[in-house]
Specification:
Blueprint (H helix, E strand, L loop, with lengths): L12 H13 L19 H16 L7 H12 L10 E4 L1 H17 L6 E4 L14 E6 L24 E4 L5 E4 L7 E5 L23 H16 L7
Helix pairs in contact: 2-4, 3-4
């Protein structure tokens, strides 16, 4: 799991523990850890913002090989002993989602095979490489009520940054802007309470009328997608 801008050391720990336990229940042998590709809240804010902004631009210009967060994440992955048949899952919040995407693309270029599943939670939008589109789940706070099939109207302001769009040929070959040309194949609105900092809350006031916390809603979305994504040759 990858944290974003100036994140508290334990911000995603509860979510990591819940997901880790579920994967073990499913029969996997699991190693999980929380990484800080831009540093935690003890590192200077200006430097972190500069690095994340640079990585957003790298994603927009198809220069992800220069991604700072992606490079650090890839380095952490390659530093571990990797066994044959091992699956990597990258789950990032905010800028951590950028680092996850960029690291996944570089890992695919290095090792080939099937791309690893990537979950971007409350992240800025960047163009998803065609090779990764079916292996990426993008989650955003849609507010209440929200429909997974509804329009892109995030309650999370960070999700309004950047774009999945690109130019395409329209009628008579006139260029037309397509807002979803480089979007991931899987986008879900989460009916959580709050916004950018609240995806992993599990106490009042972040519990809805049905008794479901933000953490539970976020986890359920990730779990249901991973059930398919972890099947052999299946991230569709």
């Amino acid at each position: 799991m990858l944290a974003g801008f100036r994140t508290a050391p334990h911000f995603m720990e509860r979510f990591r523990a819940v997901l880790h336990a579920w994967l073990e229940e499913e029969g996997w042998t699991v190693h999980s850890e929380l990484l800080f590709p831009y540093g935690d809240w003890s590192r200077g804010a200006v430097r972190q913002l500069w690095e994340i902004r640079r990585d957003i631009r790298a994603g927009m210009r198809r220069r992800r090989g220069r991604s700072i967060g992606g490079g650090r994440t890839l380095g952490s992955l390659l530093a571990r002993e990797r066994r044959q048949g091992e699956k990597t899952i990258l789950i990032g919040h905010s800028g951590g989602g950028l680092a996850a995407l960029h690291a996944a693309e570089r890992l695919l270029a290095l090792e080939g095979g099937d791309p690893c599943p990537v979950v971007m939670i409350g992240s800025p939008r960047v163009r998803i490489p065609e090779s990764l589109r079916r292996s990426v789940l993008y989650l955003y706070a849609g507010g209440e009520p929200a429909s997974p099939a509804g329009p892109f109207k995030p309650a999370d302001p960070v999700c309004r940054l950047g774009t999945f769009g690109g130019w395409t040929a329209g009628a008579r070959r006139w260029p037309l802007w397509a807002a979803d040309k480089h979007a991931p194949a899987h986008i879900r609105a989460l009916p959580i309470i709050g916004g950018h900092a609240d995806y992993f809350r599990e106490r009042e006031p972040f519990v809805n009328a049905e008794g479901r916390s933000n953490l539970e809603i976020t986890f359920d979305a990730v779990r249901s997608w991973l059930k398919t994504a972890l099947q052999p040759a299946a991230v569709d």
